[in-house]
Amino acid sequence: MMIGVNLTKLDQIQFFNQCYIEGKIDFVEILLDNFINIDPEYVSSLLNKMPVSFHIMNSLYLEREADDLKYLSSRIHSFSSVFEPIYISDHLFKSKVNDVYYPMHIECDYENEFEFIFSKMNNWINLLKSEIYIENFPSIFYTGNSQVEFFEEIIKNKNINILFDFSNAVISSINNSVDFEVWEKVIKTTSHFHVSGYRKIQGADSIIFDTHDRRISSSEKSLIKKFKEHFNSCESTLVIEYDNYVNNIDWIKDVDILRQITS
Amino acid sequence: MNYLEFLSSKNKLKSKDDIVKLIDYRFVIQKQLWEKITNSIIDMKEFFPSQSSEQFSDFLQWMFLNSFNYDWRLYGYVIKYLHYKKHSLNSKLITNLLVHSANKWGSDNILESNYLFLYFPNEDKLSVLYEKSYENNLKSKIQICRCDNFEKYQSTDLSSCKIFYSISNDLTYLFKFIEFF
């Protein structure tokens, strides 16, 4: 399994290059949003041929106008032609309700919006001219098994896969009191995984939030250990995400521990 | 209906625990919005002393009732709200809020126009011109200027509009104009 970290800023590249040379990491996952308007050749020159994957946060393919999506896909093509990424991944959420932008990511209604989401996703795939890995959502409010069932259905499409985020699934299972194991069938189908830190926020004890600001929890490590038999050897990837209050020493400690667990 | 009330619509909340979670979730979102505004601009604590203050709740309720966007325009709506509440705003504070709106626009919108022009006509047409710069970094350039320098753009509502503004015969820049009034 290839172990990677998420690259969100240009000034992280020097540190990651050193980690790559020392064999600490095998690749970086580029958060394309933060690089999309930069010359990909320039980014490539900084990364010294280190393998990369692409992650997209705010393509907003469910909501963005067709022309803007077309332009965004053309920028992603220009990056793909330079980097040949291991995979391209995106998210599944909405940013607005009744045309009003809200300050949080809004979870989709998987049961009632299936056709709408599926159609928009296919449109996005056609523009990208690539298969895509969609990350599962860290649910806060009760969704039962509807998210799992949604993913079980959409991954039947040959160009749609799940980027399985262990943390998001743990968060959803805690917030919704749903058994983590319901994801097992989906986990078996994918090769690409995420994991990150999560926590409660003071004053809101009933909810776990996806914060990316601390070390990986012991329960996440246990789950990764439990499911590692489903990771497809050298083709699989695991990204350890850390992008708030980043502590590089803690980050690399988790990278080392997860390499031991998955090997 | 209260702000962020859309989350509690019947088809969204399916368990008893969700009512408790909704209250906690609203608390967190309110805290984040308050911190965004007051951490960036210290003077804002004069108007919004705490995240749970009556003043801040009233601001969020006003945002909700007007269907205003909680995105990068948030800082601009703060100006509009305080003006609506007849608070006296000095030019430094207004400019600060406009600059924060522009900065947030620059970081949040990956495919927007290259230029953003924000202005507040009530107070001496205070304005900022923001230019996105992609020369191997994501630093932005902000200029404080007067909107008199630009062709007058009229709008009947607080809205955004993409227009082409010709700098010269062979250069055309895509602009976004926002007027707060």
Q: What does this protein look like?
A:
The complex is a heterodimer of chains A (263) and B (181). In chain A, a hairpin with a 2-residue loop joins strand 10 and strand 11 (204-210). The model of chain A has no long low-confidence stretch (mean pLDDT 94). The longest helix of chain A has 18 residues, at 66-83. In chain A, the strands form 3 sheets. Chain A has an 8-stranded parallel β-barrel with strand order 1-2-3-4-7-8-9-12, surrounded by 4 helices. In chain A, strands 5-6 form a two-stranded antiparallel sheet. In chain A, strands 10-11 form a two-stranded antiparallel ribbon. Chain A has 263 residues and is of the alpha/beta class. Chain A contains 9 helices and 12 strands. The radius of gyration of chain A is 18 Å and the shape is globular. By secondary structure, chain B is an alpha+beta fold. The two termini of chain B are 25 Å apart. Mean pLDDT of chain B is 74; it is low at 151-173. Classes of the chains: A alpha/beta (263), B alpha+beta (181). Chains A and B meet through helix 3, strand 5, strand 6 and strand 11 of A and helix 1 of B.
Keywords:
heterodimer; A: 263 residues; alpha/beta; eight-stranded parallel β-barrel; two-stranded antiparallel ribbon; 12 strands; globular; B: 181 residues; alpha+beta; five-stranded mixed sheet; 4 helices
In short:
The complex is a heterodimer of chains A (263) and B (181). With 263 residues, chain A is an alpha/beta fold.
Write the layout of secondary structure elements.
The complex is a heterodimer of chains A (263) and B (181).
Chain A: E1 2-7, H1 13-21, E2 27-31, H2 40-47, E3 52-55, H3 66-83, E4 88-90, E5 94-97, E6 100-106, H4 114-128, E7 132-135, H5 146-154, E8 160-165, H6 166-176, H7 184-187, E9 192-196, E10 198-201, E11 204-210, H8 218-227, E12 237-241, H9 248-262
Parallel strand pairs in A: 1-2, 1-12, 2-3, 3-4, 4-7, 7-8, 8-9, 9-12
Antiparallel strand pairs in A: 5-6, 10-11
Chain B: H1 16-40, H2 54-65, H3 74-84, H4 91-108, E1 115-120, E2 126-132, E3 140-146, E4 160-168, E5 171-179
Parallel strand pairs in B: 1-5
Antiparallel strand pairs in B: 1-2, 2-3, 4-5
Helix pairs in contact in B: 3-4
